[in-house]
Amino acid sequence: MSEREPILGRIREALRAAAPKPGLLSGPGQRVPAHEKRPTDFRPWLPAVGESFDERAALFAKNSAELKTDFQLVADRAELQTKLVALAHAEGWKKIATHAGDLTNFAFAALGMPVVRTDSRYDVNELESSDAGITECDALVAQTGSVVVTTRSAGGRALSVLPPHHVVLARRDQLLRDLPAAFAALKRQYGSDYPSMMCLITGPSRTGDIERILVLGAHGPKKLTIFCL
Amino acid sequence: MSTVAQTFKETARRLTRDLRHRELIQNALGKYYVGRDEKKARFQNWQEARQAAAEIKWDAVNHLDKYLEEFVSKLEARGTKVFWASTGQQACDYIVEVAKKRNVRSIVKSKAMTGEEIHLAQALEKSGVEVVETDLGEYIVQLREEPPYHIVFPAMHLTRHEISDLFTKKLGTAPTDNPEELTMIARRTLRKKYCAADMGISGANFAVAETGMISLTTNEGNGRLSTSLPKVHVAVIGIEKVLPTLDDLALFLPMLATAGAAQAVSCYNTFIGGPRQDGESDGPEEFHVVLLDNGRTRLLADAEQRDTLHCIRCGACLNVCPIYKNIGGHTYGTTYMGPIGSVLTPHLRGLKEWKHLSFASSLCGACTEACPVKIDLHHHLLQNRRNAIRCASPWWEKLIFKGFVTLMNHPAFYRLGVKLGWFGQKFHWLVKGTRLDPMYAWTQSREAPPLALHTFKDYWRRKKS
Ligand code: SF4
Q1: CB contact under 8 A, B153 and A209
Q2: In sequence order, which residues have a C-beta less than 8 Å from that of residue B191 and are 6 or more positions away?
């Protein structure tokens, strides 16, 4: 039996005694008064990001280099095609996985190889054995070098994490400043009808669990490539 | 003295002298300090950000009933089953029941401290289900059949050689000294498990009330896979994990990553608001959220220490704690170790048996300084000491403290004491370092500084006259 009422009852009982607001009681010489109302604008404290596209792109590139994401600005679809084909050739892709979308359809046509589509039910083992998962996204975040994907924008839950190489196709207008902008964009896009999974992907999968030495590709993709059109 | 306290003391005594242990911890944390400082410096104002985070958590925890109801109603509206558990046992029973109903044979588990807290894996294994930890560090300690060493870095006490030996023994793989190869062994082994598992279990770092979503942070992608492929997903969440709005994550995700793992943000921050919805091609058919009380409402009732429920389990306080760094994670014998563990455990498991943890502190305040949500950790340790004395203090201890108070309140007695001490130390060499030494606790591992015949006070008086 769910203990909903007893737990809520205990919480209400407990909250009858008021707890001091943080900041007022933080020890000698450290008496920061609490704000009147809880803060909602975090921009003044978070890492700074420039306003213009060039500044955003430069910061995204810098963060990507640190995260070992391969980030490339491409001029047009022709250049995207050349780069994709070169990548497929260099890595010897035999099968890709993708979903329906304006850019993904173009990429799939450009590559012309066997494909697993994740728009409707698919075979997990087929997806697992694909050489790359190609997706679109909701946004790129300059502040952190992140890609925002959802089940709706990126072909479900597994496509962006199961194949060993995740390739993201994004448009320039998707490159946002910072995290507050990214959450605002999700709200604008989905209203209250959110997809069941949304994810902020920041670099290829990694671990430092063995002697804190960085290893890429712990469980998710070993490589993350972002083409921004 | 209770046996838990005895074991604690004995293990601590052994490990504080273990130089190899010290080197391992220092090596791991040294890299963390450098990265953390560098990431912190990117914030325009880290201190203000801490203050904001503390206030938001204060709002959440002090309106917990309201936010929990909002969180749950949003989740349920999209087909999630929510179970409220007063105790760990109830939570385990429920999950075992779900597993039975859905004919589950194997489970992949992404790191969840709440799971450790209620011994979930053990309960499921007892019911005949295979449970595999998927976080690399957790997987390693699971193979070793021991609890995690740290809430964020579970295998930080092991060298690559030890891990290689472990894999050779348990998985039959060839020995290797290369961390990358070792990681790939785990990757290959666990990939098969993901594809075959019937159930995925996770915790959550935050529960967003406004949108009814859990937020799950991992670096390896195991959290994503465990919640994407199996047909059932169960998330076990402490009731204190709520955040009022989705936007709050814009502050909390970078703070958690910076304080916890010296990263700008973690690799995968996943927000899950339900099972597979109409029109989605994959994801679990069922999503269960288990809300866990297990002593948390008792802590909530203590207004003085309520802010310990603000904890986001980043582990920063462990990383800077001189006690943790010397005695390591297993010595505590608790689910949550380090300063936050020492504060929480007496509340969750009883003050009487766990009060010794409140005394295992230098009260240096490094933990309070490091905490991204400004929990007043070292004062809470003091408060626990006070409570421990109130509830169980032997008569002789009271007497000693009475004597101490008299001594300190009467300058004449105090001066006499100092003079006697100076005189007495001439004979110290007779017993120094032996059990007869009244200062044995100090001198067994250190030199005692000599007392001067003339104190600073004497000097001052002479100078003035
Ligand atoms: S008490 Fe503070 S520093 Fe320690 S784990 Fe919790 S949030 Fe992190």
Answers
A1: yes
A2: A128, A219
Q: Provide the strand spans (E) within B275-384.
A: 286-292
Q: Which amino acid is at A85?
A: V
The CATH class that applies to domain A52-228 reads alpha beta
In this structure, the residue with its CA closest to atom 4 of ligand 1 is B317
Closest A-chain CA to B310: A22
Q: What angle do CA B376, B320, B155 make, to 5 degrees?
A: 120
- Tell me the torsion sign for CA atoms B91, B93, B94, B98: positive
Closest CA to A183 of B266, B271, B202: B271
Query: ipTM of this predicted complex?
Result: 0.95
- Residues B238 and B195 sit within 8 Å (Cβ to Cβ): no
Vertex A55 angle, CA A49 and A57, to 5°: 105
Helices (H), B43-119: 46-62, 64-77, 88-101, 113-118
CA distance A197 to A187: 14
Q: State the distance from the centre of ligand 1 to the C-alpha of B376, rounded, in angstroms.
A: 10
3-state SS, residue B264: coil
Look-up of token digits 């995204």: A60
For B53, name the nearest residue in chain A, comparing CA atoms only: A39
Distance B256 CA to ligand 1 centre (A): 9
**Amino acid type, B314:** C
Spans in chain A with pLDDT lower than 50: 25-26
Q: What is the pTM of this model?
A: 0.92
Domain ranges across chain A: 52-228
Closest in A7, A12, A182 to B293, CB measured:
A7
pLDDT at residue A20 in the model: 85
Using a CB-CB distance cutoff of 8 angstroms, which residues of chain B are in contact with residue A17?
301, 303
State pLDDT tens for residues B307-329.
999 999 999 999 999 999 999 99
Give the total residue count for chain A: 229
For the domain B46-294, what is the CATH superfamily, name and number? NagB/RpiA/CoA transferase-like (3.40.50.10420)
Six-digit token string for B452: 């001067």
Give the CA diameter of chain A: 68
Question: DSSP 3-state assignment of B97?
Answer: helix
- If we measure between CA atoms, which residue out of A88, A181, A193, A168 comes closest to residue A141? A181
The Cα–Cα gap between B83 and B57 comes to 23
For A29, residues 6+ apart whose C-beta sits below 8 A from its C-beta are none
Q: What is the pLDDT of residues B180-235, one digit of tens each?
A: 999 999 999 999 999 999 999 999 999 999 999 999 999 999 999 999 999 999 99
Closest approach atom of ligand 1 to CA B343:
1
Residue A17, Ramachandran bin (φ over 0: left; ψ between -120 and 50: alpha; else beta): beta
Task: Average the pLDDT over B38-45 and give the result.
Answer: 96
Cα–Cα distance measured from residue A148 to residue A154, given in angstroms and rounded to the nearest whole number? 9
Sequence spans of domains, chain B: 1-42+317-367+378-392, 46-294, 399-464
Residues of B in contact with A6 (CB under 8 A): 86
- Shortest Cα distance, chain A CAs vs residue B141, angstroms: 11
Q: Is A165 in CB contact (< 8 Å) with chain B? A: no
